[in-house]
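can u do me a favor
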């Protein structure tokens, strides 16, 4: 009996001494991985997008809202809100500030339920020309792939991207063969909403 008691005491002592070591240095713990990539650009709301807006404990202040072609939408008590160039977090704060006139400490949630406004267009000598909803962005090569690739008659050296800006319309050249060979990759730009890729 004495031998068994001593053996049990030794086992308890061993566990007590080794427990802090495992707590301080758990064998399965791994150092957090560093962020090696560039930060993702925040998506901004586009005309045609459908937002889901809700106010906590206010059943009459919730539901989907459509962003109109002029980039605005309306919400009860908050009135008309300009969503152009704004993220959902910015819109959430704007609605919160407007509702403070009527509700004490409103808790507002805004999310994008349908991304319908972020469209690009691919026309000409592609297998499936048309408009494509992108989420959130695609480059020229990806857009051509979404359009089913080019036809045998496509002038791959004369592809252009038409882009509307505040100062007018731009025409950006794109040489398919160069990019396909890994050359002049700066041509493979990220498309913006409303861009038109023309494949003659």
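np, heres the sequence
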């Amino acid at each position: 009996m004495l031998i068994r008691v001593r053996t049990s005491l030794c086992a308890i002592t061993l566990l007590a001494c080794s427990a802090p070591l495992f707590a301080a240095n758990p064998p399965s713990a791994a150092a957090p991985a560093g962020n090696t990539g560039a930060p993702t650009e925040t998506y901004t709301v586009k005309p045609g997008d459908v937002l889901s807006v809700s106010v906590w404990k206010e059943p009459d202040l919730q539901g989907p809202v459509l962003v109109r072609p002029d980039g605005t939408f309306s919400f009860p008590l908050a009135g008309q809100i300009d969503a152009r160039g704004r993220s959902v977090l910015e819109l959430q704060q704007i609605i919160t500030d407007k509702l403070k006139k009527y509700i004490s400490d409103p808790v507002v949630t805004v999310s994008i339920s349908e991304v319908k406004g972020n469209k690009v267009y691919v026309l000409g000598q592609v297998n499936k020309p048309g408009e494509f909803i992108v989420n959130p962005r695609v480059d020229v090569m990806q857009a051509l792939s979404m359009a089913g690739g080019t036809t045998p008659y496509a002038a791959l050296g004369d592809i252009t991207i038409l882009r509307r800006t505040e100062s007018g319309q731009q025409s950006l050249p794109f040489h398919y063969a160069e990019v396909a060979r890994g050359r002049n990759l700066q041509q493979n730009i990220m498309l913006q909403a409303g861009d038109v890729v023309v494949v003659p």
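The two ends are 95 Å apart (CA to CA). hope that helps!!
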